[in-house]
Design goal:
Elements: E1 7-13, H1 17-28, E2 33-36, E3 51-53, H2 54-60, H3 64-67, E4 72-74, E5 76-82, E6 87-93, E7 99-101, H4 104-117, E8 121-123, E9 128-134, E10 137-143, E11 147-155
This protein binds flavin-adenine dinucleotide.
Length: 165
């Protein structure tokens, strides 16, 4: 089945926070990594509530507070417990290790650029359709256009991963 072309050490499917972080970590460990994202660019298909947290983000991007596209520093947090007809709010303020609000279309795109600087090959606008298997073992992925082979395939295509199913 494998024709000797398009072979790498690791394929990561999905350039969200998990895929980008995984790809960078593997690249830093010396692995050849191809990161495949179906969107026009990393973050183009993603929305979320808006806050990223400093401590885990720094593990991957130590200088993100000065380099990444951040919207706002969040120093106050409010949690509201709702009753049937009333509500109780608990607030706290914190100046260190705060969170930042970001727009995924900007932040993920920046993060994917950092992955490229670490040697990750980013392939965008490419949907992984299925996993390639040989002797009941995953040996790569099939996209709309091509087949890519690798020693390891990491699925980081989100919580509703069709590929995992
Ligand atoms: C309403 C809401 C609000 C949230 N608010 C926050 C918040 O404020 N802070 C926070 O930290 N978290 C928040 N989260 C959670 C956060 O969105 C997830 O934890 C995070 O996005 C998970 O990252 P991921 O990389 O696993 O997956 P995703 O971010 O889902 O990334 C998966 C990537 O894989 C790509 N992909 C999928 N299938 C394929 C395929 N077949 N081929 C190629 N590419 C593929 C997608 O295009 C996508 O880019 C929120 C979630 C929701 C739903």
């Amino acid at each position: 089945m494998y024709d000797g072309k398009n072979k790498t050490e690791v394929i990561v499917v999905g350039a969200g926070p998990a895929g980008i972080s995984g790809a960078i970590t593997l690249a830093r460990a010396g692995k050849k990594v191809v990161l495949i994202e179906r969107g026009m660019f990393a973050g183009s298909k993603n929305v979320f509530g808006g806050a990223i947290y400093t401590v885990p983000t720094k593990e991957i991007f130590p200088d993100f507070e000065t380099e990444a596209p951040l919207e706002r520093r969040n120093i106050e947090h409010n949690f509201m417990i709702l009753g049937k007809s009333d509500a109780t709010t608990i607030s706290y303020r914190k100046d260190e290790n705060v969170s930042y609000s970001v727009i995924r279309g900007k932040f993920d795109r920046w993060a994917a650029e950092q992955a490229k600087k670490e040697g990750v090959v980013l392939v965008e606008q490419t949907v992984v359709r299925e996993l390639l298997k040989e002797n009941n073992r995953v040996i790569g992925v099939k996209t709309e256009l091509e087949e890519y082979y690798s020693d390891i395939v990491v699925l980081a295509d989100g919580v509703n991963s069709l590929l995992a199913k």
